[in-house]
Amino acid sequence: MSAVPTSASTSNFLSDITNSSVIVKLNNGFEYHGVLSSIDGFMNIVLENSIEMVGSKEIRKYNELFVRGNNVMYIASQ
Amino acid sequence: MSEDHSVITDVATGTSELDIGASIPSVLPLELIDKSIGSKIWAIMSDFHEFVGTLVGFDDFVNIILSDVTEYDVARKVVCKRSKLLLSSRNLAMLVPEGKGPEI
């Protein structure tokens, strides 16, 4: 399904964390705390009810948000 | 320059220490990472971020899964903990097995 090859461990992790609370950190330092609704092999991500954080400061809220995969540094389970 | 090459080439086996393409290295680069699965590893990014955690797995692009992670922002001297994460290979520079992490 995904556009790039994934090993069992990475695809298992992604299926484990879909529909649960995650932290997505971008290369520019921004963090998005929300519910992971979808992810693909490019690490394109759709988050629901996400909060934009810079450092420990809350900046904005989004009901639904698409993050382009090239910006993603990591996806962590919360 | 050509003299140096001729000294090392082994005619009998057809292999040369300098010619990486013709000989099979004893340990492939990704074998080192594969052997580190289940143990501590230290990931150093090209942007002053470092991660220390237990290596769960990795894919063809060396995107890596870490558990019990400590994240170090070396430039800002910020440390934080994550339980499990998928680290993108986009800015990954180095992986150090048995890594102790940075002194911050």
Written description of the protein model:
Chain A: It is found in: Cytoplasm; Nucleus. Chain A: It holds the Pfam family LSM. Chain A: InterPro entries: Lsm6/sSmF (IPR016487), LSM_dom_sf (IPR010920), Sm (IPR047575), Sm_dom_euk/arc (IPR001163). The complex is a heterodimer of chains A (78) and B (104). Chain A has one helix at residues 8-17; strands at 21-26, 30-39, 45-54, 57-67, 72-77. Chain A starts with 7 loop residues before the first helix and ends with a strand. Chain A is built from one helix and five strands, in the order αβββββ. Chain A has a single domain (8-77), classed as SH3 type barrels. Chain B is mainly β and 104 residues long. Chain B has two domains: 1-25, no CATH class; 36-104, SH3 type barrels, CATH 2.30.30. Chain B has helices at residues 2-8, 29-35; strands at 40-45, 49-58, 64-73, 78-87, 92-97. In chain B, β1 (40-45) and β2 (49-58) form a beta hairpin. The interface between A and B is medium-sized, with 20 and 22 residues. β5 of chain A pairs antiparallel with β4 (78-87) of chain B, so a sheet runs across the interface.
Shape summary of chain B? globular
The helix tally of chain B amounts to 2
The major pleated sheet of chain B works out as: 5 strands, antiparallel
Strand order of the largest sheet of chain A: 4-3-2-1-5
| Level-2 CATH architecture of chain A | Roll
Backbone CA Rg of chain B: 19 Å
Helix content of chain A: 10-25%
Oligomeric organization of the protein chains: heterodimer
Tally of discrete structural domains of chain B: 2
Helix and strand composition category of chain A: mainly beta
Distance separating the two termini of chain B: 45 Å
Domains counted in the coordinates of chain A: how many? Answer: 1
Task: Give the helix proportion of chain B (percent range).
Answer: 10-25%
SS element count, helices of chain A: 1
The CATH topology of the largest domain in chain B corresponds to: SH3 type barrels
Number of strands of chain A: 5
Mean pLDDT of chain B, rounded to whole units? 83
Q: Largest sheet of chain A, described in full?
A: 5 strands, antiparallel
Give the SSE order of chain B as H and E letters: HHEEEEE
CATH topology of chain A: SH3 type barrels
Keywords (chain B): mRNA processing, mRNA splicing, Nucleus, Ribonucleoprotein, RNA-binding, Spliceosome
Domain Sm (chain B): 28-101
GO molecular function, one term (chain B): RNA binding
Family (chain B): Belongs to the snRNP Sm proteins family.
